[in-house]
Amino acid sequence: MHEPASPTTSKLQYFNRDQGWIQVHERPCPFHSQTFLDTMQEMVLNPNYNTSWILRADILLDSRSDDISEELSCCSLLKEEERTYVLAPEFEMRGFVRSRTVVRRFIPRNPQRDKATNQTCLFFEERVEDRVLGNLKTLVVYIAHAASTEELPYYLPAVKGVAFLYEETPGPIEELESIQKISIHYLLFTPSTIESPGMTTRLERTALRLMDRIIKVGNGSIRGYEKKVHHDLVVPRERSQDTYLKLRVRHAKRLMDSWVEKTDPKKHVFEDILIAAFLIELWEDMYRSGKGEFPGFVDIGCGNGVLVDILLREGYKGYGFDARRRMTWKIFERETQECLSEKVLIPWVLGDEMIKAAALAEAEAEGIKQLRIAAEENLQLEGGIMAGIHDGRFQEGTFIISNHADELTGWTPLLAKASNSPFLIIPCCSHDLSGDKHRHKSTVIKTGAVENVDKLGTRIGTISSEYASLVEWTATIAQDVGYVVEREVMRIPSTRNIGLIGRKCGDGEMSVGEVLEREGGGVGWADKAFALRRMQLQKGHG
């Protein structure tokens, strides 16, 4: 563990003015200048990796021109008074030339608490004519768009500038290797004095964390690190996050303030807001661009109903059902409550004979009059005519949401195909089509089963983890009946975060019936479903 060094007068004598830079931290590093520059670019583009207070950074300007005045004049995203921070004549340096100028806007994770703010990032290279043989210097400087600490949000260090200096010098002749080190420097808004030192423990710790991050990313780069998980392949990050921030303002407080479950409201509320934001932007691409009217949604296994409530309030028609009513349902307005129902799913594709046998057996064993009458008088069970049973028939094109729906996960692509419907599946716990818990065998990923499968977080080939096997099993069922499955690593607070999207479907290699038969025919599903429904009737919920 590296402790922050005591602040000293900075070695940044290259600046044209004596501005009072303070060196805060210095550390040897095992990589060369290009790795340093690549690392700093990663840090500039993704500040959210350094702190959870920041959602992302939007790039307002990225120029490699020596004279950015013309580009700056065309940048409508910057206010006139902010352009001086970008030109930054006082940050020009002797012996160095500016090679790149980036202006980024920090988007806070909680805009009700923190404000967005801009920052200029300057990349400098040493002038060729000023280089000393065997020595190399590179510098990156962050400039706050603020005149005082009071103008800065909490998530940024309360300084005018932060500088990262990379230096490479020759090592001992016998070792034939260079020595590299990085130092971090602050420019305070008010010059540091004995009476007012300016430096705080928080600023020192911030420098230490930044240094740790640089070394970690740089080391990963030289070791051949490749990002294993790629987000935002289906919906761009900026769109989903912007929508998330709007939904958070509109829905988070009211939902958390009225929470009646024993579970943590933050996890459930924010997770469902994130999923709602993704769906809204996905539907924007599918339906709002002259491609047809939104057909409505159904959330099967809707749980606490929060996702249904948010989508309904945002103007999307739909409904949800679950085998068990939740206490949360009663906190919603009447319009939402009318769109939530307690129903057990018995898919019609199981066939009349299997469903009839299960219904009669349940009625005979338990003597439940309601089930006996329904089974005897309406053996077809069409249209969910038996109270509390949903037969899995949906209006054609209805968008099916299957979010951590457990036993319903594998059924989702089959029911979607039968209704010619698109879907979003976020698998969770592993079951088979009989409703039993089941660990699916490790499989070899089929070419084309999942788009961009190499970015799933597992390498192409055998999938060994239980969750990855569940994801592939579900994707394969969907592919076999004709879906082109897209995959998104959802930005939700859950390790079960793979989203499978089926919005394109053609003729499959197998029919729904053939896949069902291959997967065991769903034997036992109807019996378990009727038994579950019986328990609900006995509790007086049905």
TrEMBL record:
PANTHER family: TRNA (URACIL-O(2)-)-METHYLTRANSFERASE-RELATED. It comes from the Eukaryota. It is an enzyme of class 2 (transferase). This is tRNA (uracil-O(2)-)-methyltransferase. GO terms for biological process: tRNA methylation. Keywords: Cytoplasm, Methyltransferase, S-adenosyl-L-methionine, Transferase, tRNA processing. One of its GO terms (molecular function) is tRNA(Ser) (uridine(44)-2'-O-)-methyltransferase activity. InterPro entries: SAM-dependent_MTases_sf, tRNA_uracil_MeTrfase. It is found in: Cytoplasm. One of its GO terms (cellular component) is cytoplasm.
